[in-house]
Design brief:
Radius of gyration: 16 Å
Strand content: 35-45%
Number of strands: 12
Low-confidence stretches: none
Order of helices and strands: EHEEEHEEEEEEEHE
Shape: globular
Number of domains: 1
Distance between the termini: 11 Å
Structural class: alpha+beta
Largest sheet: 9 strands, mixed
Length: about 200
């Protein structure tokens, strides 16, 4: 995870622009940047995930999109198209808890969903979102770790997944320092902040 605090002015500008509530921004919020041309069928950790905390920004590798497996097999989730979280500001989207809490092999501390989030469903299973895909809501979209896998695989069915456990642990550490109980999420597109990929 890299210290990308050089991006603070731009991140704050975009957060204020996209946040519908015009109060002060929270002390900490989660940040994602979706790479241009990102496609779930490639199964890559090619996006950025991290957090803003008190005028610092830390970003590491991750995915903001589902993996190839659930893109091709959404019926295993009981849906007709896997969810891609919409870019924008997601107010109080997460709290600290446990991802996969019922499975001791996969259970780990993470930022877990607090309710329904805006998504688009990949109805044609082509790995990206376009006019053929359906807008909707989804719950259970967590912000967690990918269990050390080289590709996304089954680690994401729409979740925001950090590739490195150390990166997630750092975000959790700062989340606890902040004393917040809820964490908002700013999901941006590379076109909005291309410099994030070279900070």
């Amino acid at each position: 995870m890299k210290d990308c605090s050089i991006l603070v002015p731009k991140i704050l500008e975009l957060a204020k622009k996209k946040r519908p509530i015009k109060d002060d921004l929270p002390e900490m919020f989660l940040v994602g940047v979706r790479k241009y041309g990102s496609n779930s069928l490639l199964d890559l950790y090619d996006d950025l995930l991290g957090f803003y905390y008190r005028d610092c920004i830390f970003l590491g590798t991750g995915t903001t999109d589902p993996g190839k497996y659930f893109t091709l097999h959404p019926e295993e989730l009981g849906v007709t198209g896997v969810a891609h979280m919409d870019a924008g500001w997601h107010e109080n989207a997460f709290k600290i808890g446990f991802h996969k809490a019922s499975d001791p092999r996969l259970k780990h501390e993470a930022f877990i969903s607090t309710g329904l989030e805006d998504v688009h469903r990949d109805m044609d299973k082509d790995g990206d979102i376009d006019e053929k895909d359906k807008a909707g809501k989804a719950d259970g979209v967590n912000f967690h770790w990918g269990w050390g896998m080289a590709t996304v695989g089954r680690a994401s069915a729409g979740c925001q997944v950090m590739q490195m456990l150390a990166d997630l642990n750092k975000a959790l550490e700062y989340g606890k320092l902040s004393k917040q109980t809820l964490f908002s999420y700013l999901l941006l597109l590379e076109e909005e902040i291309p410099e994030a990929f070279i900070c």
